[in-house]
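Module 6 notes. Inverse folding takes a fixed backbone as the condition and produces residue identities as the prediction. Think of it as a translation problem where the source language is geometry and the target language is the twenty amino acids. Below is one complete input and output pair. Work through it position by position during the lab.
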């Protein structure tokens, strides 16, 4: 999405971005200064959510827990001064990594409505990534047992806690809703449309110009990686996404390349 920055060239400090589409304001919070004190600060959430499983979760996930401190610095301090008494505020959190921030808001700024969205559960990714049949035996899987088996118990406990504590829980498909209900213990209230909004693409002329620049950059990278100069315009076949060999279809992609040689 095209964007422009307010206040000159952006830095890693806290800054505000203004997107051209509908012009929402975004605050980016620099969390690096928080990392050095993360273990001490996590004691706050341990006091608010003292269950044994969740305590283990926070101790094992000290790298992502600073997110709740960023939330305090960002939304926690922004809300009292920018949201009127008759206005409503909603905070939308995606995936397990944002769980600590959601839990902080529930305790300290409860007047802010919270929405938690999972695009695929931690356990679902682990099961599929290990080549197991996920949906064929979904109801037979025991969440806690599997979480420890795949060594993702910290992520799973945080994800489940966030899903159950949020005011509204959503996911992106009916089959993921079934997965979330079994693994996280809550049926999603909303299944959101999972598609691509063409309205985010700028006008055709601008899009073609960006496409041309991107293709030139792709060719430049390919030549440097292979040490070859292409005499003719090459035909590129590419894949992108997280480095999850089976979940993201990298195995299928490699097989398809072999067949097309």
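Target side of the pair, the amino acids:
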């Amino acid at each position: 999405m095209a964007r422009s920055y307010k206040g000159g060239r952006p830095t890693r400090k806290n800054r505000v971005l203004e997107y051209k589409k509908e012009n929402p304001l975004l605050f980016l919070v620099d969390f690096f200064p928080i990392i050095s004190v993360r273990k001490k600060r996590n004691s706050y959430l341990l006091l608010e959510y003292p269950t044994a499983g969740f305590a283990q979760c926070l101790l094992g996930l000290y790298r992502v827990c600073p997110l709740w401190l960023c939330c305090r610095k960002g939304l926690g301090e922004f809300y009292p001064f920018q949201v009127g008494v008759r206005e409503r505020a909603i905070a939308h959190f995606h995936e397990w990594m944002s769980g600590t921030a959601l839990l902080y808001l529930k305790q300290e700024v409860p007047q802010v409505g919270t929405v938690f969205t999972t695009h695929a559960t931690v356990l679902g990714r682990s099961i599929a990534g290990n080549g197991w049949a996920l949906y064929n035996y979904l109801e037979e899987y025991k969440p806690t047992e599997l979480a420890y088996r795949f060594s993702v118990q910290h992520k799973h406990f945080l994800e489940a806690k966030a899903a159950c504590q949020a005011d509204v829980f959503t996911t992106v498909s009916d089959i993921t809703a079934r997965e979330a209900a079994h693994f996280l213990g809550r049926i999603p209230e909303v299944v959101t449309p999972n598609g691509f909004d063409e309205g985010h693409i700028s006008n055709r002329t601008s899009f073609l110009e960006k496409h041309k620049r991107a293709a030139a950059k792709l060719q430049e990278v390919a030549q440097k990686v292979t040490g070859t100069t292409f005499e003719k315009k090459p035909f590129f076949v590419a894949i992108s996404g997280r480095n999850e060999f089976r979940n993201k279809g990298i195995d299928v992609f490699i097989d398809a390349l072999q067949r097309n040689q």
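Reference fact for the lab report: The beta strands are 3-5, 15-19, 25-28, 90-94, 113-118, 168-171, 190-191.
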